[in-house]
């Protein structure tokens, strides 16, 4: 394919430049979404009645098409990256808030009771017990939010070429160069898979305490749990 | 109302068990002691001081708490789980971990488990970690809320024995909640039987509970065999053991004939080391040719020095001849005893207990916690 990475000059970026731009426009909203979701989710856990309305609002916001968002925002933020990133931030809430709420709620009652009985205050209990145990659920939410954000950035092409790799789709059309569209799709797919893989790696790193499903047979050096249980029974 | 006008004097350095049916307020009572439940009225005194007067988290860190299913922090290693309270009290990491390892040994956990996570441990092991965690900062008071309910009976018995051993070493003031009356009788120095609404039905040492239940509710709760169970508080040391009707498997005809069978219709055959093999009628024994397969089974022997009258009676009931076999700690036959003799010993023990009860008032329990509502 001739000129696969030969990016038209109107985009003012190399292919790598577009990749960097794309990642920034996709990941910053997820990060911002996480920063908003954490306290919001904690409020929903603390005040149970708040959760259904919050869920309703985030779902309704998610239903607003991005184009409508752009029309609303363009008066205030203009044809900038910010106009793309604000809707993406809002969209990420629909995944992140329930993920964090479910994660925090999944902490067993006896674990919470034990923490309280050992003299954990509410803040310490949240930071040292609830949040760490919610990490797998939070990262599961982040994976969905990140992948969808990476794909959604491309609509930014509609407001003055703010769609990073998505701009290639428009250029493929106007310059009649279909390989640019293929480039856009493949690059975005690769970014999404890469980002997802990194998040999985992050979870493995942060949660050594989770049972690993892949390790079905205990290694030689590690005693079989069943044997340990028997030893315990024999005591 | 969960707990109503409960007044309880919990003695120092002993195990007080709160027992009762579900919903009787025993857990609520326990949680009032570390203020996880605040009483709407009344006071709880610890060593004469109102627990409401000190900061709640300071109070809680001075009391160990063990819960059903252990409630371990699944995201922390075993050693860090145990070191939680010392770390919160400002101990250094190394000191707290060293203390945690020491406690693992104390509760019978292999040190190799220190770096494991809770999911890698069996239920019984997790419960041991729960006990170690509660003991970590060496609190004078230990609160235990149905700690052994969720493990199987074999593991539970092991954990109960371990708790009694640890208690003998450390002498904590333990408040233990259970719905299992057998557990209460086994572990408790004092047992508080509660009924719905947090009313105290009876507060007494287990032996007294079994001999003199305060009312129909307590009697019903204790179950049908409280008379038999009470026998576990009487040692079997006083039993008169007969050594006459015992013969070794390699005995000669003269030795067999010389056995004093006046008291017993059967002879117990033992091996050369003195371990019991089985019973036989004297006439059926042919010296030098004793066929072990034809001997009557002897059931299960009891250990003469350490077992209770309950074990002795159980052995006699299990034995087809109606005679129990007593052995020493090594399993060698110490003697045999009939159901009739055990029955006399039981009557004697009851009479003796009644006499001593009349002679001395039960020593009054010391100060400590007082739960009221």
From TrEMBL, chain A:
InterPro entries: ABC_transp_perm/SBD, MetI-like, MetI-like_sf
Subcellular location: Cell membrane; Membrane
Domain ABC transmembrane type-1 residues, every copy: 19-199
Keywords annotated in UniProt: Membrane, Transmembrane, Transmembrane helix, Transport
The organism's place on the tree of life at top rank: Bacteria
TM ranges: 26-47, 54-76, 82-101, 133-160, 180-206
Membrane topology designation: Multi-pass membrane protein
Major subcellular location class: membrane
GO cellular component, one term: plasma membrane
Presence of keyword Kinase: no
GO biological process, alphabetically ordered: glycine betaine transport; transmembrane transport
SUPFAM superfamilies: MetI-like
Hydrolase recorded as keyword: no
Similarity-based family: Belongs to the binding-protein-dependent transport system permease family.
Descriptive protein name: ABC transporter permease
């Amino acid at each position: 394919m001739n000129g696969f990475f030969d990016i038209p000059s109107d985009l003012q970026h190399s292919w790598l430049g577009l990749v960097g731009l794309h990642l920034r426009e996709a990941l910053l909203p997820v990060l911002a979404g996480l920063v908003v979701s954490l306290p919001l989710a904690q409020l929903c856990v603390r005040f149970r009645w708040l959760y259904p309305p919050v869920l309703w609002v985030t779902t309704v916001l998610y239903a607003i098409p991005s184009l409508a968002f752009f029309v609303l925002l363009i008066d205030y933020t203009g044809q900038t990256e910010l106009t793309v990133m604000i809707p993406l931030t809002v969209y990420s809430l629909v995944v992140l808030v329930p993920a964090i709420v479910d994660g925090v709620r999944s902490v067993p009652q006896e674990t919470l009771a034990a923490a309280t009985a050992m003299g954990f205050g509410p803040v310490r209990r949240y930071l040292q017990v609830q949040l760490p145990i919610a990490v797998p659920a939070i990262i599961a939410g982040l994976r969905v939010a990140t992948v969808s954000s990476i794909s959604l950035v491309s609509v930014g092409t509609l407001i003055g070429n703010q769609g990073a790799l998505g701009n290639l789709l428009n250029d493929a059309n106007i310059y009649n160069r279909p390989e640019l569209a293929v480039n856009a799709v493949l690059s975005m797919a690769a970014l999404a898979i890469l980002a997802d893989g990194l998040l999985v790696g992050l979870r493995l790193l942060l949660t050594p305490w989770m049972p690993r499903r892949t390790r079905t047979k205990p290694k030689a050096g590690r005693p079989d749990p069943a044997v340990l249980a028997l030893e315990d029974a024999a005591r | 109302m969960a707990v109503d006008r409960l007044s309880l004097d919990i003695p120092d350095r002993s195990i007080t068990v709160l027992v009762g049916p579900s919903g009787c307020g025993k857990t609520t009572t326990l949680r009032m002691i570390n203020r996880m439940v605040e009483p709407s009225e009344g006071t709880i005194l610890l060593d004469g001081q109102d627990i409401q007067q000190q900061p709640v988290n300071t109070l809680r860190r001075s009391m160990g708490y063990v819960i059903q299913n252990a409630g371990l922090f699944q995201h922390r290693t075993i050693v860090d789980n145990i070191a939680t309270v010392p770390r919160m009290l400002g101990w250094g990491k190394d000191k707290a971990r060293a203390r945690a390892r020491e406690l693992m040994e104390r509760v019978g956990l292999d040190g190799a488990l220190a770096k494991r996570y809770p999911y890698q441990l069996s239920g019984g092991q997790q419960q041991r970690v729960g006990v170690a965690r509660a003991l970590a900062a060496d609190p004078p008071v230990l609160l235990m809320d149905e700690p052994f309910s969720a493990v199987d009976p074999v593991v539970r018995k092991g954990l109960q024995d371990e708790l009694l051993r640890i208690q003998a070493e450390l002498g904590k003031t333990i408040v233990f909640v259970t719905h299992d009356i057998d557990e209460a009788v086994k572990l408790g120095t004092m047992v508080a039987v509660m009924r719905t609404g947090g009313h105290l039905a009876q507060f007494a040492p287990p032996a007294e509970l079994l001999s003199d239940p305060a009312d129909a509710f307590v009697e019903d709760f204790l179950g049908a065999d409280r008379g038999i169970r009470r026998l576990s508080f009487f040692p079997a040391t006083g039993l008169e053991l007969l050594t006459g009707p015992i013969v070794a498997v390699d005995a000669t005809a003269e030795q067999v004939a010389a056995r004093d069978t006046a008291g017993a219709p059967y002879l117990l055959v033992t091996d050369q080391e003195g371990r019991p093999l089985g019973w036989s009628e004297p006439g059926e024994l042919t010296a030098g040719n004793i066929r072990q397969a034809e001997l009557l089974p002897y059931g299960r022997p009891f250990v003469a020095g350490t077992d209770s009258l309950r074990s002795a009676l159980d052995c006699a009931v299990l034995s087809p001849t109606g005679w129990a076999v007593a052995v020493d700690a090594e399993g060698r036959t110490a003697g045999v005893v009939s159901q009739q003799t055990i029955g006399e010993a039981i009557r004697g023990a009851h009479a003796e207990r009644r006499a001593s009860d009349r002679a001395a008032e039960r020593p009054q329990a010391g100060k400590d916690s007082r739960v009221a509502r």
